[in-house]
Amino acid sequence: MDNLFDRKYTIQGLFILVCLILMAKLFYIQVGSDKYFISAESNVLKKIYTFPARGVIYDRKGKVLVQNEPVYDLIVIPNQVKEFDTLDLCNTIGIDMKGFHKRFTKAMNQSRYQPSIFEKQLSVQIYASLQEKLSRFPGFMVQNRTIRHYPDSVAGQFFGYVKEVTKKDIEEHEGYYRPGDYIGKAGIEKQYNDVLRGERGVINMLYDARNVPQGSYAEGKFDTLAKAGEKVYSSLDMDIQKLGEQLLQNKVGSIVAIEPSTGEVLAFVSAPGYDPNRMVGRSQGNNYMEIFGNPNRPFLVRPTSGYYSPGSAFKPVNALIGLQEGVIDAETPFNCPGGYRAGNHTVKCEHVDGNISLRRGLARSCNTYACNVFARIMTQKKFKSKVAAYNNWEQMVRKWGIGQKLDIDIPFEKKGILFNSDEYTKRFGKYWGYTTVISLAIGQGEMNTTPLQMANIMAIIANKGYYVKPHLIKAIGDKKTISKEYVQKNYVGVDERHFTPVIDGMQEAVNSPWGTAVLSRVPNIIMCGKTGTVQNPHGKNHSVFIGFAPRDNPKIAIAVIVENAGYGSTYAAPIASYITEKYLTDSISKGRQAQVEWMKKQVVLPIMPKPKVKYQPKQTEDTTKKQLPAKLEATPVTDITAQPKPIEITK
Amino acid sequence: MSTQQGNRFFFNVDWITILIFVALCAIGFVNIYASVYNPDTADVFDFSSNYGKQLIFILTALILGFSILLVDEKFFSVFSPIIYGATILLLLVVLIVGRNVAGNQAWIPIGSFRLQPSEFAKFGTALLMARYISTFNPKLRDFKSIAFAAMIVLLPLGLIMLQPDTGSALVFLSFMFPLYREGLSGYFLLIFLGMIVLFIADFLMPIGLIIFIIVMISAFFIYQNRRKQKMIFTIVIAAVVSIAYLYVVKLTYAKVLEPHQRSRIEIMLGLKTDPKGAGYNVIQSKIAIGSGQTLGRGFLQGTQTKYGYVPEQSTDFIFSTIGEEWGFAGCSVVIGLYCFLLLRVINLAERQRSSFSRVYGYCVASIIFFHVFINIGMTIGIIPVIGIPLPFISYGGSSLWSFCVLLFIFLKLDSNRMGFI
Q1: Residue A51 phi/psi, 5° resolution?
Q2: Is residue B328 very low, low, confident or very high in pLDDT (cuts 50, 70, 90)?
Q3: Is the pLDDT of residue A627 over 70?
Q4: Do A29 and B180 touch (CB under 8 A)?
Q5: Would the CB atoms of B382 and A16 count as touching at under 8 Å?
Q6: Where are the transmembrane segments (chain B) (predicted)?
Q7: In this structure, what DSSP letter does residue A180 have?
Q8: Is B256 on the interface with A (CB under 8 A)?
Q9: Which ranges in A300-385 belong to alpha helices (H)?
Q10: How large is the average pLDDT for residues A112-119?
Q11: CA distance B300 to B310
């Protein structure tokens, strides 16, 4: 019996053991893990979001550039839907039955009990007629939100656009976004998305197991109201922006204007452009594809990602480096026999000037002068090797923002091209010298800059030695804050005293009878500038002009590029002069208004039917007809009244 | 032969056990109140609601319990065959006239209440078991006595299986503990344990691997006992039986078990997750319990409880309310109370002079133990969903009364422990 009595302990031990097992498991799920607590919260708590309006964007004069328009999303909770007149609903919101079933199935698949978006962005008009009938469509409701509206229909690439978040966006932002939220995808909307987006409002609602709302959680203690995004003040001047877009319509190119003292970008034109209003609303997707399909690539933000050789526009920089290095002074003469012979090839000039010095060399855009200066810089005795000389030159050029990003506040800025000595060594082997890379002296060869960088070079010369990083947004929010990097002066390492002769030369280029851009002189304003005719390996030369004005206390530095338009003096320089005039005097003088209208009508598109035109007139008509409608459609209609009718093919 | 006076009955009663009983009933009431709480119609004495009814059940159970204390102690021993017979009869009746609730024919409707005979069959069986062992004093070593004891258990078990109410039927396996205490070989427990292990292994491992393991273990033991021919024979038999059992389980599983039982087992073993279907109860129950964390959300603050996320919350899943609103602390108290009660009952049983009282005491502890283990284990997902109530706490008259009767008969017997029956 003793033996059997001991079995009591076996049984009691088993009881205790089992109780401990239960406790251990309970400890694990209750104390050891938050998982179940979180699941419980998500069981009961449903967050209902209200969408904030995105921040309004103003121009530098306080004019509204972007505002918000109400739209209405139709929402459905599938399990609350009862029988109703589906055809009526379809007609009201403008979809067919097939579309209805597709949307409904999608909503069902998402969740039977949770609201999902049935149709997005119904306009106010559709909403008005839907609102009356909504009670007849059980399970459907409307949620309002806002979309962007751009009153001026300009500066598409500057604004960028806003789109619904993708899965990838949601992952990248680690849970900030939820499906259905909007996010800036390009331009300012992307760059300043965090500022502009505002904060979602949230209402925490309790739901029971049958998804019946049971009131707000903790008496609304954790609920928040939607907070509109912050105001943003752009540095753009809408008047010259608009003028710039009109001048460049039916052309491909770019205009960048900067206020030199502050680095604020005054104009940011990229042609062809597109109407930002097309990237909003229900037809966004179709319009996107259409704009995307335009062969002249309206989505390319040319001011920051278009690559152009600076051409003659680089000559002032080259001269200034020469002055700073002390290899020349303002009066050092060089003989121009009409070209500069470097090794076995010659850099030609358009003219034969004989002995010229700095001012004339710049005004006449003399290649020989530039090459001589470059040769002197590269053959200074202080350098032990050609590579060291090049490295020194490269470092000095880089300080001007060439070959590197200027950190402008718009996404996808490119840095341009400037080779370092290693890259040349890789290309040419051990033996290369200044004669090999002599094209750099005239801004050709392994040097590409963006229009923004060119405008910035002008800002540096206007400032006599420094620049403020160019930026498109000058202030954020009511307090008008701005990032520190956009007020700091960046010096380029050339003494102020060297600038005067260079500026003189640039003044002559525009204002003296022998200057290259003399036809673009602005009445009553002394503009300094430099034309460029940039060799383009893919076709006709690009027309380039860079400059600033007025000479004393400059207010605007500008770079204009018109692709495939030939000499800098024919297109780029006049365009720059109109914009400068408009900006400085707020109008165009009477005598020049006709020129402006003429310029607006010019069509210079790189992708055009070629010489055939001349010899087979009949076919020309056909081709033009076939080709042109597409071109015209794809080109943004910035101003309908100014839309040119005759198509001229510029040679 | 009783030497005690009527007014002394209560003095000999084990008040500690009664205290635990009352505490558990109170915990049950509070949590049933919380699980059906509706702020609009909150009234503790609303007798149409579940907690109102439960209050009546508790009061009547207490009356029932104390009436039992007044009954002559010989009554239970003497009438045990009749009580057993009556419960068997009820089990037969329920198969004929019973109300079919959720696929189980387990209830006899009487007025507004529903009687669940399987609940009463437990103490009927316990009484007869005690009577059998105390009368015949079998050693439980020979086939005949084991078979007879098994018959007492298997008859109600089989009838309940016919309802079919697998959960309640499983509880009858708890009679192994008193039988073990009275001399049944420990091998039965081991075999039982082995059956469970093999059953689970059957799902988790390929059958070939299990057979290989069985063969290896057998070989090891044969080598150990290589001089004992009889042992070798037994081991070989055991191995063959185990392998046969594996196939029987596979077959039973595929042919006999109902789909919902199959999926419950698969979910418990983690072979299948089905948060919307069969796994819903367990997942929601675990969420509710887990969300209670250390100290719980507080009385009436459990969101899962309040908004009905756990099905059958006042009955089988009442423990999820405790877990959510009182947290790990509350769960520990409840499990602690049960553990204390079980150990207490075993200790009381061991101090009995009459073997009837002792066997009955073991039966009581074992039945309660099975219920607690299966019920709590189910709510926290370590046991498949088996619908049996949590003793004294779950909502329901039949269950509360039957546990009350079960326990108070033992208290009555214990209060009379000095006497002979």
Answers
A1: -90, 135
A2: very high
A3: no
A4: no
A5: no
A6: 12-34, 54-71, 78-97, 145-162, 183-201, 231-249, 326-347, 359-386, 392-411
A7: T
A8: no
A9: 302-305, 315-325, 358-363, 367-378
A10: 77
A11: 15
pLDDT tens for each residue of A23-48: 999 999 999 888 888 888 887 887 77
CA-wise closest residue to A12 among B377, B391, B130, B349:
B349
Distances from the Cα of B357 to the Cα of A402, B120, B153, B345, angstroms: 101, 18, 18, 11
CB-nearest partner of A22 from B292, B342, B377: B377
* Residues A567-594 pLDDT 10s: 777 888 888 888 888 898 888 888 788 8
Per-residue pLDDT at A198 exceeds 70: yes
Q: Which residue has the higher pLDDT, A296 or B53?
A: B53
Which segments of B352-396 does DSSP mark as H helices, in order?
Answer: 355-379
DSSP state of A115: -
Enumerate the domain spans of chain B.
6-184+267-415, 189-256
Q: Which residue in B328, B333, B358, B369 has the most chain A C-beta atoms within 10 A of its own C-beta, making it the best mutation to test that interface?
A: B328
Q: Which of A31, A37, A214 sits opposite B328 (nearest CB)?
A: A31
A374-421 pLDDT per residue, tens: 888 888 888 888 888 888 888 888 888 888 888 888 888 888 888 888
Q: How many CB atoms lie within 10 A of CB B169?
A: 22
Q: How far does the CA of residue A219 sit from the closest CA of chain B (Å)?
A: 14
The pLDDT-based confidence of A61 (bands split at 50, 70, 90) is confident
User: Are the beta carbons of B307 and A209 separated by less than 8 Å?
Assistant: yes
CB B325 within 8 A of CB B299: yes
CATH class of domain segment(s) A238-642: alpha beta
B289:A15 CB<8 A: no
Which residues of chain B does A23 touch, with a Cβ-Cβ cutoff of 8 Å?
A: 331-332, 335
Asked whether the predicted pLDDT for residue A616 surpasses 50, the reply is: no
Residue B323, chain A, CB below 8 Å: the answer is yes
Cβ B338–A19 below 8 Å, yes or no? yes
Contact B365 A15 (CB under 8 A): yes
CB contact under 8 A, A37 and B182: no
Q: Provide, as residue numbers in chain A, all residues whose Cβ is less than 8 Å from the Cβ of B186.
A: 10
Q: Cβ contacts (< 8 Å) between B332 and chain A: which residues?
A: 23, 26
DSSP symbol at A197? S
Asked if the Cβ–Cβ distance from B346 to A23 is below 8 Å, we say: no
pLDDT of res. A311: 81
Q: Are residues B376 and A22, on separate chains, in Cβ contact within 8 Å?
A: yes
CB A359, CB A329: distance < 8 Å:
no
Q: Contact B382/A27, CB-based, under 8 Å? A: no
Domain ranges of chain A: 52-198+225-234, 238-642
Whether chain A has a CB inside 8 Å of the CB on B308: the answer is yes
Instruction: Please state whether beta strands A447-448 and B99-101 pair in parallel, antiparallel, or not at all (unpaired).
Output: unpaired
pTM over 0.95: no
Give me the long-range contacts of A173-179 (CB less than 8 A, separation at least 24): A178/A49
Nearest CB partner across the interface for A208, out of B287, B288, B308: B308
State pLDDT tens for residues B54-70.
Answer: 999 999 999 999 999 88
pLDDT value of residue B58: 94
Among A29-33, A138-142, A549-553, B365-369, the minimum mean pLDDT is found in A138-142
Classify A52-198+225-234 by CATH class. Answer: alpha beta
In the chain, the amino acid numbered B127 is L
Could you say which DSSP state residue A135 is in?
Answer: G
Name which of A499, A553, A561 is nearest A525 in CA terms: A553
Integer angstrom CA distances of residue B73 from B69, B124, B238, B352, B353? 8, 15, 45, 13, 14
> For position A619, what pLDDT does the model report?
39
